Known about the structure:
- This protein is α/β, with parallel strands linked by helices.
- 43% of the residues lie in helices and 13% in strands.
- The chain has 14 helices and 11 strands.
- It has helices at residues 3-23, 53-64, 86-98, 109-125, 140-155, 160-163, 181-189, 213-225, 248-258, 276-283, 315-322, 352-386, 410-423, 450-467; strands spanning 133-137, 171-176, 197-200, 229-236, 261-265, 292-295, 308-312, 392-398, 401-405, 429-433, 436-442.
- The radius of gyration is 24 Å and the shape is globular.
- The model has no long low-confidence stretch (mean pLDDT 96).
- Pyridoxal-5'-phosphate binds next to helix 5.
Amino acid sequence: MNLDEFEEWGQKIATWSADYHRTVGDRPVRAQTRPGEIAAQLEVSAPEGGEGMDTIMADFERIVMPGMTHWQHPRFFAYFTSNAAPASILADQIVNTMAAQCMLWQTSPAATEMEGVMVDWLRQALGLADGFSGVIQDSASSATLSAVLTMRERATRWRGNKEGLNGLGNLRIYCSEQVHSSIDRACWVAGIGQDNLVKIGTGPSGHAFEIDTNALQERITADRKAGHIPAGIIAITGGTGIGAWDFLDPVLEIAKAEDLYTHLDAAWAGSAMICPEFRDRFWGDAVSGFDSIVFNPHKWLGTQFDCSVQFLRDPSQQLNTLKIEPEYLKTSGAAVTNYSEWTIPLGRRFRALKLWFLMRAYGLENLRGRIRNHVLWAGELCEVIRGMDGFDIVTEPILSLFTFRCPGDDAMQQRLVDAINDDGRIYITQGMHDGRKMIRFQVGQFETTRADVMMAADVITEIWEKIK
Ligand SMILES: *Cc1c(COP(=O)(O)O)cnc(C)c1O
């Protein structure tokens, strides 16, 4: 491909992209294909000679597009959203073009310096205390793994990296049973092990599904008696299943008394904390007592995937855990920040640019308005579903997430979910709560409207009448 062709196709694809966003709402949200159908249409081996872009694009439309699930669809109500506001897409196109590998300050000073400033813009927007710094990672899973490794190293007096874990005793990490599976995996990978991730029950508020801090304290005391080594506590704001959120003050009180490192997983709900009313309700000032906090601007704020911000109260703890500086990575001259020392991968994309484009193009007030609307509309839809014959609300809305059941057993819940997703006008997913299957509904797509959300009620009613 020469640069004239590159330019021509770049322009064509820009037009394609705008048209895609204009018309994505007319497509079925979830791909309507069977396993293997797409792979069967692809050539089994790479071509020996180059092919023209016309042919490649035509095959893309014919083979690939029908196999896509549309995450930017305004009626995507499954999982959590992974947004891509148009302004952030433009930033990522620039980043793709320069394709800089921003591992060190000197491998692109602008990327490093903008990352520091964007983390601080977000720190202020989320109302975290002065003094927090942070780093942009690819995913909350990576940020949580970094925090768990820091817990491990801090608790072993920095011996784990050097000596390995054999003979260092049973390190213990505590969380509620509502945490995301990324916490389990972080403990597997960090060598701590599933059996040493202590999951505490929830209660007693009845509405937040918060970690039971009395039980937490008892477990830590019992573990110390048994000779185990408590290393850290992971709290959540907005769990994936039903939106569970821990009360931060009592968790921090225990962590402080027990000298434990703390990490807060707000991967989804963190974006909503740009709204002062949600911050007051879910976080208060206590949030600034956490050592590490992760949230994904790519989920609800509008930044293109991937973009996960990890705030750190004292980055030296994580740097002591992860920093490694062979001669070829040393930078001579003035002291600079090298973000690759803060994370597990060495190589890193220029992720700060899409945050800069996003926050400048929309402004925080516009971003707050979208999130407030999502919360409001989820509440309205919840009331409509509550009024539907035989339907029950299983968990009340927490921000823009609630769960419900249709009449019938667990298999019926799955039948309804599958029938709705086969229909394609909306996309929802199922979950488990208290040992029973339920249907999850969340609102968070960047361009979704009230009409999109309310249409879900019609679709659910119509499909239910057909299958019941
Ligand atoms: C989505 C989510 C995660 C995982 O996020 P990744 O960035 O995909 O690793 C972790 N915790 C919670 C609460 C989430 O909602």
